[in-house]
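Dataset card, provenance and construction

Sequences and ligand SMILES were collected as paired inputs. For each pair, a complete structure of the chain with the small molecule in place was predicted and serialized as structure tokens. The example below shows a pair involving magnesium ion. Curators did not alter the output after generation; any descriptive sentences attached to a record were derived from the structure itself.
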Amino acid sequence: MGKALNGVEAAVAMGPDEPLALSLAEPGACEDRVIVGRAQVESGDWFEGLGPVGLSRLQMLGRLAQGIAHEINTPTQFIGDNTTFLRDSFGESFALIGQLMAHLLEIQGMGGPAGEAAQKALDSMAHSDLDYLGVEIPKAIQQSLDGVGRISNIVSAMKNFSHPSADVQTLTDLHHAINNTILVSQNEWKYSATLGVDFDLNVPRVPCFPSEVSQVVLNLIVNAAHAIGASPTRAATGAYGKITVRTRLHPGEVEISVQDDGPGIPREIQQRIFEPFFTTKPAGKGTGQGLAIVHKIVVEHHGGWILFETAPGRGTTFRIFLPLPRPDSIH
Ligand SMILES: Nc1ncnc2c1ncn2[C@@H]1O[C@H](COP(=O)(O)OP(=O)(O)OP(=O)(O)O)[C@@H](O)[C@H]1O
Ligand SMILES: [Mg+2]
């Protein structure tokens, strides 16, 4: 059923009886177009090619992101504080103007030179678009506060996301890590796809290196978005694609999957996609390290495994499995 391909075993699903015959869209409707690849724990020689380079790139990017997040955080905080101050003091100032107008109206009613002066002041106020400003300024301030709130969310997601790798695995809330990753990667997918999550709430906290697992999810989401962006259907219709990030609890392991409805992975390159520096993207768009890093992190660092399902024209799902500690090993 399968053939060894330099550390990656691929199997073509030929029919419903195949144990690895996983259908992409309709469960049970296996077709010979569906390919399942399983990255095994034993890596082939080519895999050594990634060496420490890929991971030091990750660590460097992590530190860089952490530094940038910190630098953005301080000014964002005072922009937020100042804008809140402006919102509150504008409300008070505007209430004061209302009281002032009421007094002027009283004085104007008394007539005489003071009444005339009050009338002039009221005329100037009538010409100053106060009503319009009274509605629009609070709206503008509120929009600024919403924007600052969004920046704060992204910055805190970046800080969490790029938390330097600990030496030991930590019990991690995968859903929190995935949500952060989705937030920091928004710019990569929001122009070509909508992104939904389907989380299994039974998934427990998992011992792992959280920033590495976030990198895995990030690479898979970016690949999905690029694939959708490059799809001929999308080029023809401009239609948005769909990315779904799922989690599932299985006996002894948890699964994180990223599914896209892009063009699929052509058969002739399926066995090469985990190779370091293999890319089909134009220079500047891809370095070909994404899936090699995914493999290194999942298989070598976490003792997990990877499977992908792809059907030309229908999309691709990458599924990664991380082992859970055996119940008898938890104290
Ligand atoms: N979801 C997907 N749909 C279609 N093709 C994919 C998908 N994911 C990966 N590929 C193919 O696998 C190749 C290797 O992916 P990989 O993530 O390793 O590198 P890259 O995305 O090209 O570059 P990098 O991730 O370093 O920026 C891609 O160039 C693309 O051809
Ligand atoms: Mg990639």
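Derived descriptions for this record:
The beta strands are 2-5, 8-12, 35-39, 170-172, 193-198, 206-208, 241-250, 253-260, 305-311, 315-323.
Residues 1-34, 39-53 have pLDDT under 50 and may be disordered.
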